[in-house]
Amino acid sequence: MSHIHFPGVEIYADNIRQMGEEPWRVFNVGDPGIENIKLTNFIPKDELEKEFGIEINEDVILMTYHPVTLEQEKLPYQMDNLLKAMGKINNNFIITYPNSDNGGSYIANRLEEFAQSHKNVHLVKNLGSRKYLSIMKLCGVVIGNSSSALVEAPFLKKPVVNIGNRQKGRLMANNIISCGYEANDIYDSIKKALSVEYKDFVRTKTVSLYGEGNTSEEIVKVLKNIELGETILKKKFILHNK
Q1: Confidence at residue 175, expressed as pLDDT on a 0 to 100 scale
Q2: Rounded CA separation 145/167 (Å)
Q3: Does residue 191 share a domain with residue 224?
Q4: How many structural domains is the chain composed of?
Q5: What does the pLDDT look like over 6-15, one tens digit per residue?
Q6: Is residue 225 situated within a structural domain?
C-alpha cells in the first residue's frame, strides 16, 4: 500500500523488492531504535540504584517476556519452565510487564506471584524508554522475547538470551543466544550469557545490524529528493529473480 518504504536492514529491503516493489521505492535507512539510543539522556547509575534499592551492574538481568500469538495453549508450560530456570539463579532481575496481547495478563500474574517469593526479582509495570535503555546500558544480560533484545541490545553490546519463537525469522546479531522453552535450556543459556568469556566476546565482536543511528536524517534526505506527482502514485509490479 505504501509508495515509499524505509526498512531497517538490507535483507528486509530485499524482501520488499521480492514482493514486486520497484527498487527505487525501497530505502534501507536503519532502525529508529538505534537513533533513539543515541538521542537518549541516560539516567545516572546512582539514581537508578536508589530507585530499585540494588546495585545495577553487570550481574543484573533485564527481562521482558511477551505472549506469543499462536502459542496461547502452551503459555502455562512456558511460564512454568521460565520461572523454574529463574528460580535457580541468584542474580537480581529487573522485569518489565508484558504487552496487552492475549495472554499478557496471565504472564503478569505469574510474574507477580514469583516476585512475592523471590527478593531478587524487581517487577515494574512500565519502565518507559529512557529508564529501560538506561538499565540496559548498565546491566549484564537481556533475556526474554522482546524485539529490543534484537535491535537495541547489540548496539549496547549486551549478551541476549532470546527465548522461544516470538522473534523467529528476524535478523539476529552474534550476541544472541536463542533457546527453546525447556527449563534446562533456558537456565544453561542464561548462565552462558552471564559468563565473563561470553560478555568479553560480545563486547569485542558484536556489531549492530540495524544501522548506526541516523534514520531520521536518511529519511529526510530521501523525501527531499522524491518528486511528487504521477510517477510516485502509479505503481508497477516488478518480477525479481532470486
Answers
A1: 98
A2: 7
A3: no
A4: 2
A5: 999 999 999 9
A6: yes
Closest listed residue to residue 85, CA positions, set 103, 63, 101: 63
Same domain, 68 and 108: yes
Q: State CA 158 to chain mean position distance.
A: 11
Whether the Cβ atoms of residue 3 and residue 226 lie closer than 8 Å to each other = no
Query: Under a CB-based contact definition with an 8 Å cutoff, are residues 26 and 105 in contact?
Result: no
For residues 45 and 56, is the Cβ–Cβ distance under 8 A? yes
Q: Which helix (H) or strand (E) holds 142?
A: strand 141-144
- Shared domain for 177 and 68, answered yes or no, is yes
- pLDDT of the residue at 188: 99
pLDDT band at 238 (very low <50, low <70, confident <90, very high): confident
C-alpha distances in Å from residue 169, one per residue of 30, 94, 140, 166:
18, 27, 25, 9
User: 52-72 in b/e burial notation, b at 16+ Cβ within 10 A?
Assistant: eebebeeebbbbbbbbbeeee
DSSP string, 178-192: EE-S-HHHHHHHHHH
Tell me which H or E stretch contains 107: helix 104-116
Residue type, 4: I
Q: What residue numbers bound the domain in which 159 lies?
A: 54-205
CA distances from 78 to 146, 181, 183 (A): 15, 6, 9
* Average pLDDT value for the chain: 96
pLDDT for 36-64, tens place per residue?
999 999 999 999 999 999 999 999 999 99
pTM given for the model: 0.92
Residues in the chain: 242
Q: What is the CATH number of the domain that holds 111?
A: 3.40.50.2000
